[in-house]
Fold this protein.
Amino acid sequence: MNTRMRRAAFAVAATTMAVTLAACGSAKESGGDKSDESSGAKKGDALNIGLLLPENETARYEKFDKPLIEKHVKELTDGKGKITYANAKQDANTQNQQADTMITNKVDVLIVDAVDSKAIAGSVKKAKEAGIPVVAYDRLAEGPIDAYTSFDNEEVGHVQGKALLEELGDKAKDGEIVMMNGAITDPNAKLFKKGAEAELKGKVKIGKSYDTKEWKAVNANANMEGAISAIGKDKIVGVYSANDVMAGGIITALKAAGISKLPPVTGQDAELAGVQRIVSGEQFMSVYKSYPKEAEVAAKMAVALGKGEKLDSIAKTTVDSPTAKDVPTVLVPVVSLTDKNIKETVIKDGIYAVDEICTAKYKADCSKVGLK
């Protein structure tokens, strides 16, 4: 485990302990948190929490984030709290309209995973003016947010870049790689790219690098076709893909170009299709992020803010956004996922059952990697 991962793991362990103590009423709070200034009078359990998620092309949002946040809000409010939900389907204007509607309808708190971190700032400001606290979820939204939870996103890039280099070994000197980064509207994409480039630059030639519009597989596919034409299919020794959705489009392009022995392709999010590609050997790795932990923290933050409570016992660190300083923050650690640790990660945590991964198409591949 490298230094960054040890720090992240320690921070989350400390956070988990503190949250547990808070649930038992034994955590000691201290001053300095400004969250109660925007939450108005203290409220009971009957909270209406607005949840704004960015898109539904990535499976995680509908399958994990939404139901998990709903579950934890119910648990934390004795069944009296509710979620008002909207998905922007990758449209920033739609998300602003959804947020404005929730503000007009006077939700008690907003949890926002922004399509565009800059574009959402106006709605965040409106919420603040209406006395509605805002939790930035997964992506660091701009504007006067009250709290933030995500993963150590720069570390995600380090994990991906390091894994790709280790897999390439001496082949790193024999050709070029393609970098398929995420959308420029997503602040996380910038951090993934920064971490990956820190590992890759100077150690392997980056032949082509793309910022992929809307994270879409079809756009990654088109970019990859361009890279193959520019570099030559025989010279591409690896592909850095920032997530699993794009990895699918990349692999389709590689196959269409007649590349029978696929180069290692990275990913992120441990999507079911990505895990199945890892099992079959088409995709080299993904990054597993514990959505259950992230959703739990977001729910704790939202309920505490809705009740006018401080976040000292939940968030032990802070981050700065371009528009807000010292935002109470919890960052959840990440894990490199390969065919060697599927059992210890996504299966152990209940993300997928073996039967979900090992459908008829993947039965033989599953047996080879010990999934039965």
